[in-house]
């Protein structure tokens, strides 16, 4: 089997820039060099693309702009990326692992660009990425598919004057969660009970998005399930996130990434086999309803009486050494490196199928 070239694209303009770099480091270390040569492409916080070395990836906590800025050539059959300074190709890219979290990375924008350049890429395509990044739209699709999720209200920034605490309180109760619906990693999310907290949280969320999502609080265990595949999606064993309630009101950014004592993960979750199977079945239904391909992580709440509510779907979940997605597949006996290889192959398979579709009539 010939060795293919895989580009890892990381960084980006989103609030999850630093998390993306940590994911990219781990992927670059673990990728199977017997199957793939690796090219590193970093997107700065200003949105410029740069060719990077492994040493730069290892030492830069924020993408540093340099003389190796890249230019893209949509429509080219091969060698679609060249350096700006000397117009030299960086070589043919067979497949991309885009690990740009959040806005501009997993909202369909980057996926659409890669499709325009006719390059295979890991993870859902344009429609699946767009549906899942916007948690309000996700919930509407889930409701249409008959998949349980929390009650909610949503407002555009232009509708800020229509948001009323007492009205929302009657509908959703307290506490409630307020969040920017197009961000991940719990950025800008607040758990609120009082009127003063409510309006502060609305203003905070609208700093990060052009609309705000207000959700009913679901009391339950936080269970996560990894899904992989194109048309034949499979679900991993399920894991549980247990947040340290003494220091965190919920599974926030700090509990996820900066506080080593903020949370623990239990894999596999301590659940009976029937409940685990039910969660996996719901995860696959959710994955298909939202047009996901390649991979996604489906997060649910399991209530004390056994009800299951989908919380959100992460189409490009974290790939750090402590991230749930690879750890869940590890519980199924699939190594971190093997997960990466399978995801890259799924991307190549889908790309081949897409190129077989007729474009003339």
Topology:
Layout: E1 4-11, H1 17-30, E2 36-43, E3 49-52, H2 54-59, E4 70-72, E5 81-83, E6 95-98, H3 109-116, E7 120-121, H4 126-133, H5 135-144, E8 152-156, H6 165-172, E9 176-179, E10 190-192, H7 195-205, E11 211-216, E12 221-229, E13 234-243, H8 253-258, E14 263-266, H9 273-289, E15 294-302, E16 308-314, H10 324-331, H11 336-356
Parallel strand pairs: 1-2, 1-6, 6-7
Antiparallel strand pairs: 2-3, 4-5, 8-11, 9-10, 9-11, 12-13, 12-15, 13-14, 15-16
Description:
The chain is an alpha+beta fold. It folds into three domains: 4-121, Rossmann fold, CATH 3.40.50; 151-216, ATP-grasp fold, A domain (Dna Ligase, domain 1), CATH 3.30.1490; 221-354, D-amino Acid Aminotransferase, Chain A, domain 1, CATH 3.30.470. The protein contains eleven helices and 16 strands. The strands form four sheets. The chain has a five-stranded mixed beta sheet, sandwiched between helices. The chain has a five-stranded antiparallel beta sheet with strand order 14-13-12-15-16. A four-stranded antiparallel beta sheet has the order 8-11-9-10, covered by helices on one side. The model has no long low-confidence stretch (mean pLDDT 92).
Any descriptors?
alpha+beta, Rossmann fold, Dna Ligase, domain 1, D-amino Acid Aminotransferase, Chain A, domain 1, 3 domains, five-stranded mixed β-sheet, 32% helix, 25% strand
Structure, briefly:
By secondary structure, the protein is α+β, with helices and mostly antiparallel strands.
CATH homologous superfamily title of the largest domain? ATP-grasp fold, B domain
CATH topology description of the largest domain: D-amino Acid Aminotransferase, Chain A, domain 1
Q: Which strand order do you get reading across the main beta sheet?
A: 3-2-1-6-7
Mean pLDDT over the full residue set = 92
Number of individual domains: 3
The main sheet comes to: 5 strands, mixed
Specify the CATH class of the largest domain. Alpha Beta
Helix/strand class:
alpha+beta
């Amino acid at each position: 089997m010939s060795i293919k070239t895989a580009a890892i694209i990381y960084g980006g303009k989103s609030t999850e820039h630093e998390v993306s770099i940590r994911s990219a480091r781990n992927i670059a270390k673990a990728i199977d060099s017997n199957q793939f040569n690796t090219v590193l492409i970093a997107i700065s916080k200003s949105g410029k693309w740069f060719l990077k070395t492994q040493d730069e990836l290892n030492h830069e906590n924020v993408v540093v702009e340099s003389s190796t800025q890249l230019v893209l050539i949509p429509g080219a059959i091969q060698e679609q990326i060249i350096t700006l300074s000397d117009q030299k190709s960086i070589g043919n890219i067979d497949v991309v692992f885009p690990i740009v979290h959040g806005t501009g990375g997993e909202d369909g924008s980057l996926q659409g660009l890669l499709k325009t350049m006719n390059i295979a890429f890991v993870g859902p395509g344009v429609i699946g990425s767009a549906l899942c990044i916007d948690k309000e739209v996700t919930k509407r699709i889930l409701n249409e598919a008959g998949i349980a999720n929390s009650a909610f209200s949503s407002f555009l920034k232009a509708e800020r004057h229509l948001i009323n605490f007492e009205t929302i309180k009657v509908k959703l109760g307290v506490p409630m969660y307020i969040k920017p619906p197009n961000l991940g990693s719990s950025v800008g999310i607040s758990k609120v009970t009082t009127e003063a907290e409510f309006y502060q949280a609305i203003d905070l969320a609208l700093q990060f998005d052009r609309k705000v999502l207000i959700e009913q609080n679901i009391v339950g265990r936080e269970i996560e399930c990894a899904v992989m595949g194109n048309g034949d999606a499979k679900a991993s064993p399920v894991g549980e996130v247990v947040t340290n309630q003494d220091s965190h009101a919920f599974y926030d950014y700090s509990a996820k990434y900066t506080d080593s004592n903020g949370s623990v993960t239990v894999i596999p979750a301590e659940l009976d086999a029937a409940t685990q199977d039910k969660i996996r079945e719901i995860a696959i239904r959710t994955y298909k309803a939202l047009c996901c391909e390649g991979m996604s992580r489906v997060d649910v709440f399991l209530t004390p009486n056994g009800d299951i509510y989908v919380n959100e779907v992460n189409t490009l979940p974290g790939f750090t050494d402590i991230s749930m997605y690879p750890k869940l597949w590890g519980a199924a006996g699939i190594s971190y490196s093997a997960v990466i290889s399978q995801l890259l192959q799924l991307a190549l398979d889908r790309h081949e199928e897409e190129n077989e579709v007729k474009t003339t009539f």
